[in-house]
Specification:
Blueprint (H helix, E strand, L loop, with lengths): L1 E4 L6 E4 L2 E4 L2 E4 L4 H4 L5 E8 L3 E7 L6 E7 L1 E8 L10 E7 L4 E5 L3 E7 L3 E8 L8 E3 L20 H4 L4 H4 L1
Antiparallel strand pairs: 1-2, 2-10, 3-4, 5-12, 6-11, 6-13, 7-10, 7-12, 8-9, 8-11
């Protein structure tokens, strides 16, 4: 397993070997000795094409996450919410599929979301903290200040995601 840096400090790709044979493939997702983080909560989501989930974060009890696509293909997007960071308010996006040889590690204090690009997609999350419903917050997926370049104008959204706050209101 190898860590590949991105343009945002501490946001990394966890590059791994994929072992393929006639049965399919096997790949490792995470080793505690690489990140030195304790992941205690796992989640799984299943979405259909054009579903956009995000931009989610917890104000308190912020979670670090590892994102792995189990089926399909997504555009994964994160926004740096660390106020003392040089990249505060900036976003990073990357396409991840079931065939990708990496997972995405997202540190604490980032908003996270993704768009399902394939017919369906299944996404597996490993988190360092439990879900805290009272702390959950959503920034609008199409916030003008952040200006994420989504490849879609009218995604399928939950009510929660339709009613997200503006980035300016987060500050």
């Amino acid at each position: 397993m190898k860590i590949v840096k991105t343009k945002i400090k501490d946001l990394v790709l966890l590059k791994t070997s994929i072992y393929r044979d006639k049965r399919g493939f096997f790949k490792e997702v995470e080793k505690n000795k690489v990140l030195k983080k304790k992941f205690i909560f796992d989640c799984f989501s299943y979405s259909k094409k054009k579903t956009l989930r995000g931009m989610h974060f917890q104000k308190k009890n912020s979670q670090a996450k590892i994102i792995t696509v189990v089926q399909g293909k997504i555009l994964d997007v994160v926004v740096d919410l660390r106020k003392n960071s040089k990249t505060y308010g900036k976003y990073f996006s990357i396409k991840i599929s079931q065939d990708s040889d990496f997972s995405l590690f997202i540190p604490e204090n980032f908003a996270h979301g993704f768009l399902c690009l394939s017919k369906v997609c299944a996404v597996y999350y490993k988190c360092t903290k439990y879900r805290d419903e009272n702390s959950e917050t959503t920034i609008k997926w199409n916030d003008k200040k952040i200006n994420i370049k989504w490849p879609i104008k009218k995604p399928i959204l939950s009510d929660k995601d339709k009613n997200g706050i503006n980035f300016e209101d987060f500050k």
